[in-house]
């Protein structure tokens, strides 16, 4: 039996495959949305940093409203049916404990994911969002399964 391919998803990237690929990414206040179509056995994932594109410069998947639209668009290009697609949402943590008081980036990223997926009629079947920890996730594009490990700055000891 062959080992599945592996791919590390960086911020601002989108990855889609009908093959078995284990996609790993690390999230703080960023969000990763994992979409899976159980009929076509196709999975896709994005990793966005900020909720909304301000309309200036390139409409990059750095922004949630762009990244979510592009992910769905690419799934549909692979002959997925939107009524079959299921979502899992991860991230949006306040790992430093200060950003939620200033910009609310994690909270806004979560709200955007939930709102846009609902508007598109895509059911969120699992999520792990918010809190004070980061997350390392591994998504299998062939099965839609996601493994998660919580990671936090509190788990590290400082050195002088």
CATH-defined architecture:
2-Layer Sandwich
Query: What's the average pLDDT?
Result: 91
Number of strands: 9
Structure annotation, total helices: 3
The main sheet orders its strands as 2-5-4-6-7
Radius of gyration: 16 Å
Oligomer: single chain
Question: What structural category characterises the helix and strand content?
Answer: alpha+beta
CATH class call: Alpha Beta
What characteristic shape results from the CA principal axes? Answer: globular
Topology:
Layout (H helix, E strand, L loop, with lengths): L4 E4 L5 E4 L3 E7 L3 E7 L4 E5 L17 H14 L8 E6 L7 H4 L2 H16 L2 E7 L4 E7 L5 E6 L9
Parallel strand pairs: 1-3, 6-7
Antiparallel strand pairs: 2-5, 3-8, 4-5, 4-6, 8-9
General description of the model:
The chain has 160 residues and is of the alpha+beta class. The protein has a single domain (5-155), classed as 60s Ribosomal Protein L30, Chain: A (2-Layer Sandwich), CATH 3.30.1330. It is 21% helix and 33% strand. The chain contains three helices and nine strands; from the N terminus they run βββββαβααβββ. It has helices spanning 64-77, 99-102, 105-120; strands at residues 5-8, 14-17, 21-27, 31-37, 42-46, 86-91, 123-129, 134-140, 146-151. Strands 2-5-4-6-7 form a five-stranded mixed β-sheet, covered by helices on one side. A hairpin with a 4-residue loop joins strand 4 (31-37) and strand 5. The longest helix has 16 residues, at 105-120. The radius of gyration is 16 Å and the shape is globular.
């Amino acid at each position: 039996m062959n080992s599945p391919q592996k791919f590390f998803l960086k911020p601002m990237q989108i990855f889609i495959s009908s093959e078995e690929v284990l996609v790993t990414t690390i999230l703080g206040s960023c969000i990763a949305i994992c979409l899976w179509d159980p009929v076509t056995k196709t999975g896709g994932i994005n990793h966005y940093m900020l909720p909304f594109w301000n309309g200036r410069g390139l409409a990059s998947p750095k922004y949630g409203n762009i990244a979510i639209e592009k992910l769905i668009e690419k799934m549909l290009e692979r002959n997925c049916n939107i009524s079959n697609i299921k979502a899992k949402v991860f991230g949006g943590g306040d790992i430093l404990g200060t950003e939620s008081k200033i910009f609310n980036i994690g909270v806004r990223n979560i709200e955007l994911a939930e709102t846009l997926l609902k508007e598109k009629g895509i059911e969120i079947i699992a999520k792990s969002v918010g809190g004070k920890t980061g997350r390392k996730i591994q998504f299998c594009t062939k099965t839609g399964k996601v493994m998660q490990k919580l990671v936090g700055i509190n788990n590290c000891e400082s050195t002088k």
